[in-house]
Amino acid sequence: MSSEDKEAQEDELLALASIYDEDEFKRAESAQGGETRICLELPQDFKIFVRGSSTENLQGSGFEYSVSFLPLVLNFELPPDYPSTSPPVFTLSGKWLSHAQLSALCKHLDNVWEENRGCVVLFAWMQFLKEETLNYLNISSPYELKMCPQGKGQGRTAAGPPEAGKDSGGATGSATAEEETVDARAVQDVESLSSLIREILDFDQAQRRKCFNSKMYSCSICFCEKLGSECMHFPECSHVYCKACLKDYFEIQIRDGQVHCLNCPEPKCSSVATPGQVKELVGEELFARYDRLLLQSSLDLMADVVYCPRPGCQTPVMQEPGCTMGICSCCNYAFCTLCKMTYHGVSPCKVTAEKLMELRKEYIEADETTKRFLEQRYGKRVIQKALEEMESEKWLEKNSKSCPCCGTPIEKLDGCNKMTCTGCMQYFCWVCMGSLSRTNPYQHFNDPSSPCFNRLFQDVHIDNGEFWEGDGDH
User: What is the pLDDT of residues 116-158, one digit of tens each?
Assistant: First the structure.
């Protein structure tokens, strides 16, 4: 190796290492060579298309994916007489391209070398692959990927725009053209379309994240400019906020139990954070609470799921259709799924005083089908008793007054307005409901300053002009 060639090679490799980061350029440790991972930035709304094949039982169907980046890999080794005499030895791989398309690119790299013989060409090769591959191969959206027919082309992809013919680079999407133009330096080995799609989508997602991390964004909460690596965006709406603000926002919502409210803070935006985004921001303890509440809210929407009523258990229990018995798989507690008490077989559910009030209202407002169900659940006697008590309460509310001392309901049938409570024996005035003196209860009606002066017999019905002047106690 001449000193000029050696110096030119070292200068070129050092220049590439300074221009590209480690993900894009990696120098070989044992030889003068390396690997460049070229990321093609695609036009906006670029789509790749996969048509169903008979071997995959998808005949007549297809899938379309939006991508922003596609990969190419150029491996090279510099011979001792490069760049004075020989070109770099290389292989070019890209699983989403056909062998014919890769071969066309290899041929063009040879042409670039011939035009620049005696000069370093790696940077020119990389720039061509990065910026001109799509135009050179006449690739546009939607770009179809498909496996070659079984046989000589098995394990390869034939790629290109749907219904595309020969492109400007001399490559076609047909198996016949591939066999004619295959270059040994074109490396293309695909297991299946599903694995290829997965690799493409993973690469695209990684590159999108890399671009996002390197840009500056303004957080609409704290109004600070921050790098994307310190921010998070909602995939559905693409609104961006810094992680610090979102962390505080998520933690408050989770502590309050509002796990369905972890949405984009932008007003009127309905985008929701993914569990992965929540896990990235909050601690393990809060994420465990978020995960538990999210599961519980989902179970609550399922009609055949009830919870074990024991306070220390609360395990979800699947309810058999038409059966009112639930058995907890954790503590083995057998309970009635209606009243949540210990299972009581065909006996009616027991009703508490508080539940009895709700039952009365529910029964009155129910249709005939629901009324029959309530009668079967609680028993007709319980329902009848509830209705009778309600009627009694309504009657007492309308026709009685409560003792001002003990609250006992008192009904006045006749007599004067001086009353005696049957519960606590306290004297009180039926007109103003005030308590009366034990020694002289009538003073209240004889005192001119009293509000009930001369009202002892007010509203009393007199029969034949006769009435009792004694107690009106009833």
Answer: 999 999 999 999 999 999 999 999 988 988 765 544 444 555 5
pTM of the model as a whole: 0.55
**Does 161 lie in the same domain as 22?**
yes
- Residues 376 and 409 grouped into a single domain: no
Total residue length of the chain = 474
Same-domain status, 116 and 181:
yes
Residue 321: inside a domain: no
Q: Which residues of 249-276 are buried (b: 16+ CB within 10 A; e: fewer)?
A: bbbebbeeeebeebbbeeeeeebbbeee
Catalytic residue check, 416: yes
Range of the domain at 371: 353-399
| Helix runs in 20-163, H state only | 99-115, 122-136
**DSSP type of residue 174:** S
Burial of 450 (0-12, 13-18, 19+ CB in 10 A): middle
Residues 6 or more apart in contact with residue 222 via CB below 8 angstroms: 242, 244, 245
In the numeric block, the tokens 């295959």 are attached to 182
Q: Identify whether residues 43 and 123 lie together within a single domain.
A: yes
- 158 φ, ψ to 5°? -110, 110
User: What residues contact residue 72 under an 8 Å CB cut-off, 6+ apart?
Assistant: 37, 38, 40, 92, 93, 94, 97, 129, 133
> Looking at the structure, do residues 44 and 189 belong to the same domain, yes or no?
yes
Say yes or no: 176 and 103 in one domain: yes
Number of folded domains in the chain? 4
Are 85 and 99 members of one domain?
A: yes
d(CA 144, CA 151): 21
Question: Are 155 and 193 part of one and the same domain?
Answer: yes
Q: Decide: helix, strand or coil at residue 262.
A: coil
Strand ranges for 320-436 from DSSP E = 325-327, 334-336, 401-402, 409-410, 418-420, 427-429
Token duo for residue 294: 């999210």
- The single residue of 148, 349, 416, 452 carrying the catalytic annotation is 416
Give the model confidence (pLDDT) of 53-91 as tens digits: 544 444 446 788 999 999 999 999 999 999 999 999 999
Q: Which residues pair with 76 in a beta bridge?
A: 34, 90
